[in-house]
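seq/struct pair 1
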Amino acid sequence: MNKEKLEYAAARYGTPLYVFDLDRLTAQTMRLRNAFGKDVGLCYAMKANPFLTAHMAEEADRIEVCSMGEFEICRKLRIPPEKLFISGVLKKKEDIFRILEFCQGRCAYTVESVKQLHYFVEWSDAHMVKLRLYPRLTSGNQFGMDEDMLHSVFNVVNMSPYLEIEGIHYFSGTQKRSLKQLEKEISMLDDLLIRIRDEWKVSIPCLEYGPGIAVPYFQGKDVQTYKDEGLTALREAIDSMQWKGHVTIELGRAIAAECGYYLTQIRDIKKNGDTEYCIVDGGNHQINYDGQIRGMYEPHLQVLPGEQQGREKAWTICGALCTVNDVLCRDVKLTGVQSGKILAFERTGAYSAMEGMSLFLSHPLPSVVTYQQDEGWQLLRKQRDTYLWNMPEDGSDGGKRRAAEEITEIAGGLSGWKL
């Protein structure tokens, strides 16, 4: 997105502000599809940025849903159940039953444990509806099940007339920079699927694989797996598998990161000792780069508006929080820094808007807007106060009134939906 559009967004909607470029999002999705080839599916993990879910429901083959909140977002957006891939380490019985009542056998479901399997057995037997399951293989953490437990799940499913194992789900972590690590995982999954076929006598038609491709957030930090040649190497590893079935690549960060911008205004500048500081109206409660530690690394950013003049200086950029940890970046060389200018932090389309400490110090939530060449600007969320969520519900009359207004607004937005 060019500077003029970002300047316009800041002027029209104020700061702090999240801007998501949907044209850039589409281009990145096409880049990934071209790299993986037409035979590989693409699943968008909406946890990376739920504001992009409606757009990605058109671009991707699937939307991964990991909570009831995410499910409700998809319902409100009227995303067809056929597009949903219901996942998540914790699926409470009452939640999974609500999802099953709505989606039934039209979407696929991951199985994280034997207990979760029992929920699917109980519901499918009672309703005589066939369900498509994806038992999740653990990578050695709290997610999924080991091979022994996986075998037990297969045996139970074989006894049910309504359950079908459509595939295996595997995701071992994020920000993977090494192609060798991805190739090793593909080889391991290939061996497992062959053993399941030959020893367990079960044919698995599908594999849902989250490679956790890293995104190069910082200046001078290229990522092998994110480059075109890295994506091509991943596809070649998939093509070389002895097991022949349909593979869906599950991504969030690698799809969404580059489409996002976080705009924050410089409100004060000062020099303490030898360090030049600029204080912005945002902070690290609203922006997060994976791997950033108290501003150690330099993200991609620009100063707005217009051409920058003057001497280049090294600046430490700090937010509005009352903590020494609120350092967005330090010793970044910039020109034209002064109060009133806008700093545009790039590559903030994934997780950055979701992982910050949004309620800390009761600052408002920033507005969220999208831009698309054909549709123009769209305001997805107005700036929202958070202090109401940081006080007792039985507080002052004013607090009660504002809380009631918030509830009425939310309820109005959800009207017309039934379980």
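seq/struct pair 2
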Amino acid sequence: MYELAERLVREGRLSAPEYLALLTRCDDSTWFFLRHEAVRTAQERFGCAIFVRGLIEISSYCRNDCHYCGLRRSNRRAERYRLSPEQILATCEAGFEAGFRTFVLQGGEDPWWSDEWLVPLVKEIHRRWPEAAITLSLGERSETSYRALHEAGAARYLLRHEAADRSLYEQLHPAEMSHAGRLACIEQLKAIGFQTGMGMMVGAPGQRVEHLVEDLLLLERIEPQMIGIGPFLPHRDTPYGAEPAGDLRLTLLLLAILRLRFPQALIPSTTALATLHPEGRLQGILSGANVVMPNLSPESVRSKYAIYDGKASSGAEAAEGLRLLAEELRGIGYGIDFSRGDYQR
């Protein structure tokens, strides 16, 4: 396995059988080697600074019924909320004053957020804070909508593909959601000019290591500018509520592989990692991640955006915990970078 790892470091890619071997038979020394090399690669590109993005969770309503997500429409116990445009603008203002230069507007696929409301909001954010990057993570929309949002000032869009394998995607999602449709949206986003983000859960119910290899190959084909992965975490009020969480070690291994394969990518150390393990966020950075997204959302709604149980949204995961985050990063030799941190090939 060490020879495969060395070749990945040297050449930047492996074949599908070699990825499979590395993911299934990686010993401890190879695991540590890959993570070390991933950190070295990230530091060569980005230095010892971690980009911070201000996460604003704008709505917990969702029209979809994904089998793993606590926001699924059939979850009658979910606490629903929807931030108003005025609340979002006030949150952006507070975030800008705190130093943030990227705002990530994330939410369920809430039909209320039509282009009639969303496009003027994006325009206003861009008008008030033109030096700040606007990232959207609002699910599948029409190509016309994506284009209008891009023209309004949104620069980035996060839309995880969730599963490259069609049968696994269909197992995780309701029948009305289309695997081909999801991939078509991602292709549209790239063609329009968005810095585009993809990603998947690690350890999702029904997922095999072979599926993760397919994910790697799909990412190689599309070459997104941002790649977000995290461990599967169950929510008690979903069909998969009794399933075990994803594996931390495998998630960190995949992060390292992704950094070595995509040295220029923006790769977050996700909230799911911080939720799975107290040092999960830092371990993600020590596997090659270079982005964190503290929560800017009003404190009154953070617990309601419950996509999985126990979601970390306080302390260093929250915007008001920036000092704690800075201390934690300093402890592993890193600092905060508030700049836009745009993708550069």
